[in-house]
Every structure is written in C-alpha cells, then in structure tokens.
Specification:
The protein is mainly alpha-helical. Helix content is 55%, strand content 7%. The chain is built from 8 helices and 8 strands; from the N terminus they run H-H-H-E-E-H-H-E-E-H-E-E-E-E-H-H. The protein has a 3-stranded antiparallel β-sheet. A 3-stranded antiparallel β-sheet has the order 7-6-8. Strands 1-2 form a two-stranded antiparallel sheet. Strand 6 and strand 7 form a beta hairpin. Helix 7 packs across helix 8. It is rod-shaped.
C-alpha cells in the first residue's frame, strides 16, 4: 500500500509520472444546463477535476477523489484532504464499489448513445451530441479528441467558453470516439509507443519504452507518406517520359517505314514502266509485219473474189450461148466469147 511519503520527494521519477497523470475534465457537465445533469453523475464526480472518477479512492474522512488527482494534490499540500483538510496518513486503495458504478454508468452511456444514433439522429452513421439527454438529442457539430465527446452547437459554445478547454483539439464529428480512448484505462490516446507500434494513454507509459506524442508521430509518419508520394510522383513522371519516348520512337519508325514504302513504290513503278516500254519496243516489228500480212491477205482475198466473179460471168455467158437454139446467133458470138474466156485463162494461169 502506498504511503504519503512515496508521493513526495522520495521518488523523483514517480513524481514526474504523477505530474503527467492529469485527469481529463468532462465539459459535458459544465456545458449542459443544470436541469439536465444526472444526479448519479454529480455524486460520481471528483471535486478536484470535476470529471467522473478515474480509479476512485475514498479517504478515511469519507471523501472520494480520482487516485491521480489525490496523488497530485499530495505533492503540493500538507497531506490533508482537499475537501475537509483532515490529515491523511496514506493513500487508500481503489474503491471497487465506486469503480463498479462508474463501469455501469459508462455502459449506460454507450447504450444511450447507440439508441440516440438510431432513433433521434434519423440517419445511420449520423453523430449526435453526447451531452444532450433524452430522445431529442441534436446532431453533433464538432468532436473533442481530448474530452472524447461530440457536441451540438449549443453545447459546443459552453465547451469553448471554458478557458481550460479552449486548447482541446476539435475536429469534425467522429462516429465512434471510443476507438480513440484507451480500452484499459478509458483515457484519450495521446501518446504513441514506438516499441509496440500503437497508440497509448498516459497511464500505459512504461519505463524504458520510446514514447512520443501522437502529433509528433503523425508529423513523422505524414512526412514519410509525403516522401512516398513524392517518390511515386517521380515514378509517374519517369514512366510518362518513357511513354513519350516510346511514342516518339513509334512516330520516327512509322516515318521511316512510310519513306521506305515510298522508295519501294517508286522503284517498282520505274521498273514496271521500263518493262512495259521494252515490251512495246520488242513487239513493235511484229505488229508491223502482222499488219502488212493482214493487208496482203486482204488484197489477195479481194483479187480472188474478183476472179471468182469474172469466172462466174464467163460461165454465165457460156451457158447462155450454149442453150440458145438460134444457130446464127450462136455462130456469130461464139468466137468472141471463146476468145474472152481463153484470154482470162491465159492471164490467170488456169
């Protein structure tokens, strides 16, 4: 069991740890109207931090406080009760009854938050104000990552009006703030343990572990992500340059192919023209001889046709005088016709 002497100068490292164990105030109580405060919550609040008990302890004089608050008070007081100033000889153990009541209250809050999100908000995944009580809970405007509560416009004004709460980090409404609280101690995850690579609260800090603030780790991780993004952008730029080079190479290759095609077409066209000219020159004498032979044949045909006509006329004359019964006429024209026929036979070699 701890003694009051343990909380003062006997262990400097312990004193430093206790200085960091500052309870997180609950602005819900100060932001909401007094008529909406739950009586149970008022009796389960620490008079030092005005927040719900965290590891509640009850002194011999009957007053209850957060264990961390009483430890810190003992560092700067004369070992007396902060409420009645009665001397305290030791730090009491955690009050398990109060601890159980706080767990039940926390569970009831979770159930009420789920019911309000399903009923009052009207839409799934819509974040509602954690301070509003009852089915008429309003839609949350901002969430506090220190208080781990979401606030509507009215309660946000109450939160921001408290000087000690103005430094809290406010963000757009977060659906599940419980994920940002330590599952073991219920405190905000304000630190990052690099050895275990996880977010922790101030009560999870162990000696010898490398612990930094989540903001510092976020800055470093974001720097790494930015470096990766720059690296990827460089990779994209290099690949785009490669693509441009490939496109240029394709254009040059196509130009060369078109030029070669043009050269081949020109060469083949010239060769075809030369062959056709040579063909014409080679066939020209044959055409001349063919035309001469055709003319000679036509002349011979014409001559033969004329001779056939002449022969037919001679035959007609011979038949005409041969068939006549006029003896005088026959004898008068016979010699002339025979002379004509003989002359034709001699001239045409019959």
């Amino acid at each position: 069991m701890d003694t009051m002497g343990d909380l003062h100068g006997d262990n400097p490292r312990a004193n430093e740890s206790l200085m960091s164990l500052r309870p997180i105030p609950d602005p819900a109580r100060s932001a909401q109207p007094s008529g909406l405060s739950l009586p149970v919550e008022r009796h389960l609040s620490c008079p030092i931090c005005n927040d719900l008990f965290l590891d509640p302890v009850t002194t011999c004089c009957g007053h209850s406080f957060c264990k961390a608050c009483l430890n810190r008070n003992a560092m700067y007081s004369d070992n007396s009760c902060p409420t009645c100033r009665q001397h305290l000889s030791r730090i009491p153990e955690v009050n398990v009854i109060l601890e159980g009541l706080l767990q039940d209250l926390h569970q009831a809050r979770l159930e009420a938050r789920g019911q309000m999100a399903e009923g009052s908000a009207g839409r799934p995944r819509e974040v509602v104000c954690d301070v509003c009580i009852g089915p008429g809970a309003r839609k949350a405007l901002m969430s506090c990552l220190v208080c781990l509560l979401s606030y509507c416009r009215a309660h946000l004004e109450g939160h921001n009006s408290r000087n000690r709460l103005r430094g809290h980090r406010m963000v757009a409404p977060v659906e599940n703030l419980d994920d940002r609280a330590c599952p073991e101690h219920g405190r905000p995850l304000e630190l990052y343990c690099r050895d275990s690579d996880r977010c922790i609260c101030v009560l999870c800090v162990e000696e010898g572990r490398e612990v930094v603030s989540v903001e510092k780790e976020w800055e470093e991780k974001r720097g790494q992500l930015n470096y990766l993004e720059v690296t990827f952008q460089g990779g994209i730029a290099r690949r785009r340059n490669k693509l441009q080079e490939i496109r240029s190479s394709i254009r040059v290759s196509q130009d060369h192919l078109r030029s070669e095609r043009t050269d081949i077409d020109g060469t083949l066209s010239s060769l075809i023209s030369y062959v056709e000219n040579a063909k014409r020159h080679a066939l020209l004498p044959m055409d001349v001889r063919s035309q001469a032979a055709e003319r000679q044949a036509e002349e011979l045909k014409e001559q033969l046709n004329n001779e056939i006509g002449e022969l037919r006329r001679n035959i007609s004359d011979l038949r005409r005088i041969s068939d006549t019964e006029d003896h005088i006429y026959f004898l008068q024209v016979k010699e002339a016709i025979l002379c004509k026929c003989s002359s034709f036979c001699v001239s045409h070699c019959l």
